[in-house]
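Note to self: the last two entries modelled the partners one at a time, which told us nothing about the interface. This time every component goes in together.
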Amino acid sequence: MIKFLKLYEKIGIFILIVAASVFLAIVSPNFRNLNTILSIIMQGSYGAIIAFGMTFAITSGGFDLSVEAIMGFTSVIIAMLIPSLGFAGSIIIAILASCFVGFLNGVLITKVGISPLITTLSMQVILRGASLIITNGRQVVISQKSFMSIGASKVFNLIPTPIIYMVVLFAIFYLILNQTSFGRHVAASGSNEQAAKMSGLNVNLIKTVVYILVAFSASIVGVIRTSQTLIGIPTMAPGFTLNVLTIAILGGTSLAGGKGNLTGTLFAGIFISMIYYGLNLLNVQIFYQMLAVGITLLFALFIDGLRMKYLETAKVKGIRV
Amino acid sequence: MKRYLRISVFAILILALVVTFAIAGCKTGTATAKGTTAKTMKAADVTIGYSVWTMEFTFFQNLEKGVKDACKAFGFKYSMLDQKSDATQMVQDMNTLVNQKVSGIVSTPVDPGAMAPAVQKARDAGIPVVCADIGKSGPVNALIISNNFNGGQLAAEFLAKLYPDKSTTFGLGNLKPQWTYARQRGEGFKAKCDELGYTVKSEIIVQNPSAEGGYDTMQQIMSAASDIKGAFFTSGREAVGAANYIKSQNGEQKVVGYNGDPEEFNAIKDGILAATVLQQPYVIGYKAVETLKEILVDGKSYENVEIPAEVKLVTPENLEQVAKEIMDSTGNSAYGAPATTTTTK
Amino acid sequence: MDDIKVGLTPKQRAGNLLGSFGLIAILLIIFGFFSLLIPKLYFTWPNLRDMIRFSSYVGIGAIGMTFCIMTGNFDISVGSMLALAGVLGASVALKAGGIFGVIITMAAATLLGVINGLFVTKLKIPAFITTLGMYFIFRALAYIYTNNNPQYIQDRFWIFLGNGSFLGIPLPIYIMALCYVIAYLMLRKAPFGRYILAIGTNSRAAALSGINVDNIKILVFTLIGVFVGVSAVLNGSMLGAANPGMMGDGYEFQVITAVVLGGTALTGGSGSLGGTLIAAMVIVFLKTGMSNAQVNSYWQQVATGLVLIVAVSLNKLKFWLIGQTQ
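The predicted structure of the combined assembly is written out below.
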């Protein structure tokens, strides 16, 4: 039982995915199709990639509400710079600019001491306004059609590129969080900031880097989405931030900080996409989709609570956990 | 101690302000009560207050330009407030305009059902209210609105003409449920398809009202019904995103949009988007001010009048001409009538 | 503690002063600035009256949230709660009259608050996650219940509540004042106030000292429901309709912003109701001022964000001056 519960912590959300897949495959033949499955994963990748960064932020004891504005910011910078700088130049500058925004978030949170909520909420409003000012409120059409290949082509004529990006970023973030001392330090600052400071960690620096990582992941998605639509969109993805938070939490990352579960985040991203995509294909109205997301969230966390309670009683009874 | 001090200081400040204003307010309060009788004004004395849904969408920017240009043409003063897509802000803005004592109000309401008490207040203060597009509630003088249903029908007719074979199926990317007025476009499309004997095989709501949301929805529609030949998206930005998805898959499907935003014109020019249904936000805004002018300056009476605004289909054939017309009438260079594909600024 | 004034350094004195009057000063600066800039549009009684009237929308909802954040919790479901309670009440008002509509709105919001509280305490799901789930669920239920049709509020009594006035002052201002007085008494004069501060400071210690933490938490979430209910009644009245998709959209972050700007620490254990009220007014005063001054709406967003950051930094400056860590 204990072994199972340990395993469940890692792949609990995966069980939900399997259950949902079986259900969808039975009710609709559309799901027994490789293209559909890949499309679902592809649409899950956008949320998942940003949720990787968000997982770091939550692990460090904060969160970031400015991600949707960072996507739009990246998008307009690319669109404005592409005519003069070309693909590589504009993408690099856009990502660097976004990382700078993350840096600002980090400095405001650590040095000035404003709570992550207010900092990133304000940054979201400021950045949205700034993106609109840059383009004068317009959507900026990108005329270089080949830019599309970045986010809208397929590798081996089969796998959409966003999935590749997701896998690569997952590997990188996973290694950083679980295999490097930096990752351990992030978790340490999240679980007990005071103790981390006492033991000589530069918590401020660690947290600043975390917010840069969030901004980085958001700007990557900004690049992908800009490339797909060939438009610089200052108001990109309204309301997407809550979606990202939902993914990170559903993935099993504890809001108390100190414990990040990137594998869970990856699967949660795909699962949320399955709900929306799947129910859309079954012609279920959008209201019921929202209901499904809400109930899943509560159910998954309820089960998780039961699991922790069981483990705790086991610990009290003296069973080695 | 400190807390009581703080509270009492604040209370005194508020009290002082209230008393000052109550005294000042008594005088002005009686003055406005008389002004409710219908009488004409001189153009130079007229101030038009405009409350816009949001300045983040191209459609509303063009609408605002129409209102502003009309005010300039008639010699009116002009004041603009932005609801920022928030229904409570919309009501607050309407109150602010009444407090500013503007002569007439134009509103493009984010939640047309939720403006009745605010409109009543404006009318009680003797200020006429004209809605520019979307919808209305309460004692509005006039509403200038695009024929959304008809626009959807035009899109269906266009696709039907392309594919004479009645067994052809189409997809529909509809708008979020809270925008009931605009969902008329989808209703019109479905009704016409029905009438002509075609089937709408998949209808999916664009969850994320932005170009990349259209991209995602098109992907879903293609999974649900891979054999469709065309799709109608009920808003412009989404349609461009959807068309770009088809292009990335090297698909043959034709996508039709709605609005006639500059980015749609660009996409039609590039052969990505098949057509769009052009609304005329500039004309709607201009007409709204024209209506207020008739009420305020000419002394005409409008009560609960609905003035339809024309919609028309833009295809590659008439694209250049329509763009030129828009350029001539509005001076909006974003449509890029001369063949330039540079970015818009 | 207030009486020990002796031995304060000038720096600490400045900090205390900033703590007491910082936010009030910001409010007065904003009001003064726009009054000088556009006196005819801004410095008028009707404008001031309506600005305070509209502060009630966020101001009243923020009372419950202040309690909640003081206990170290969060509620992100308030916007959806507002919508669900609003459409329920409005649909009843259509059939049974406005008084019943108002009662149902209040009752529904209170019940939803109780549900949140039960989920948080009995099922042990963290408050943030419970209310994030409810954020989706309440909104979905509002859509499903109305089948996405706006529920119009035409009842004269209900419309009067949000739009009428007594002695020249709009009713929502009286209602807001009453809510704040009640909340203040609860927080400062009843044991309840001590309990929630104790829970916010250290939940475990509070439980050990004999406080029934679960019951207090349920009460806090119930109070959020009550005050959101009042807000829903007034909002429905001002709007004349309850639209399942539009009502309370983005309300949760407006409310949380007001509470945090008002000086309540997100970590729990301390807070100020007066600060919340003034913060709610600061936001409305600033937005109205910028709109009236015809500031470009994109710059308005930038300015709002910057003012928020500056105002909250002032709060940090206070702690720095007094010389205590947060």
